[in-house]
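To whoever is on call:

I kicked off a structure prediction for a single chain this morning and the downstream step that reads the tokens threw a length-mismatch warning. I double-checked the sequence; it's 190 residues and nothing unusual in it as far as I can see. Pasting both halves so you can look.
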Amino acid sequence: MDKPKGNIAALDEQLCEKTVDRQVAFEGKVFSVEVKKVELFDGSLARREVVLHHGGATIVALDDEKNVYLVRQFRSPYEKVLLEIPAGKLEKDEDPMSCAIRELKEETGMQAEKVESLGQMYATPGYCSEIIHLFLATGLSFGEGNPDDGEFLQLVKMPLSEAIEKIESNEISDAKTMVALLKTARRVGV
């Protein structure tokens, strides 16, 4: 496929869709689903089903020896235990960094002297509005975790280099964890 030529804004206009109708099909505790009728650039109509989600925040806990701290947690959609970095969903209008710091403390008992942004990612842009904010925590101090009710976790410490190998071997397959660990590795030269 060739690289687009010309004014990007004008080219984007040809890809944009105009919403002509929307209805809420489902309203739940974590997300809702909206069914939209959209008009395409050529005038034709299409249907879009969109999961509306407040977003989330996730955080890489990196110690001075370049170890990372992950959590093992059962994930119902896959019926298996996944290895992930601490994360949680944003409450409406919640600051993403505050959410990440809270989740780090709840899930691991850790606090950080320094927390910095690693950017954000669109988890599944084909049908979901969720944006996940990525953070890196350093200068760690350790305490007792306090997971949410019904949240059962096992804390795992491993070298960042080993975590990157586990991404390559698909032992770590959670997208937010993969992206945040790879960004961290690049930032710290691993």
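Update from on-call: the warning came from a stale cache, not from the record. Cleared it. Sanity check on the structure: The helical segments are 8-13, 96-108, 160-168, 175-188.
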